[in-house]
Specification:
Length: 209
């Protein structure tokens, strides 16, 4: 018998059988790939979902990532709605202020495009924000009949105070990651930004399917 072959009491080779009496070949177990889940006997373990279907860890992680992105968007919207309600400003007005804080200044036409409002609704929104002391209208040096909208200094300070707690929490969270992790996180959000810009452009051109 070959070395390692099971022997019977008479020193002859002993056949091994399974539960139904079938002859089992004595072969060395195959080595599992690194990272493969193992069972109690050291063999590769298949992972199954609730319905018994096989799934990979990568697929499961992809689902987790996409769910996290979705939940991030939902919670950010809910937070902005909460701030708007607390500050006594509707969500569209808040979106206008956010755009102005990012851009520094804007024309009414640009604000209408960003918020999706008609020109009349945009004028009414700017009137509300101006009365609240949150924006200022200034002459447009490039258009004698046009105006530029800028955040009012006092309004910018007030709005900044609304987000101070969230800003501190974000800074603490970001600071908890390493340089390498931050590079990955930044890359993911930058790519998602470009993705949504491209999808929005498809919608505007009627190319979405």
């Amino acid at each position: 018998a070959a070395p390692g072959t099971p022997m019977d009491e008479g020193s002859g080779a002993r056949s091994e059988t399974g539960p139904s009496g079938e002859l089992l070949s004595k072969q060395p177990p195959r080595r599992a790939a690194p990272g493969t889940p193992m069972d109690e006997n050291g063999g590769a373990r298949s992972e199954t979902g609730p319905s018994g279907e096989l799934f990979s860890k990568q697929t499961d992680l992809k689902s987790r990532v996409l769910a996290a992105v979705r939940d991030y968007g939902v919670q950010l919207t809910l937070f902005r709605n909460a701030v708007s309600q607390w500050a006594g400003i509707n969500t569209t007005d808040m979106e206008c202020l956010k755009f102005l804080f990012l851009q520094g200044r804007s024309t009414p036409t640009e604000l209408a495009r960003h918020t999706g409002l008609t020109s009349g609704a945009t004028t009414a929104m700017l009137d509300r924000l101006e009365r609240a002391g949150l924006i200022e209208r200034r002459p447009n040096p490039n258009d004698r009949r046009g105006t530029l909208i800028t955040p009012a200094q006092s309004g910018a300070e007030r709005a900044a105070s609304w987000f101070e707690s969230a800003r501190q929490a974000q800074d603490a969270l970001v600071s908890s990651y390493s340089q390498e992790e931050l590079e990955i996180i930044a890359d993911v959000f930058e790519r998602f930004t470009r993705l949504w810009e491209a999808e929005s452009e498809k919608m505007r051109k009627g190319q979405a399917v």
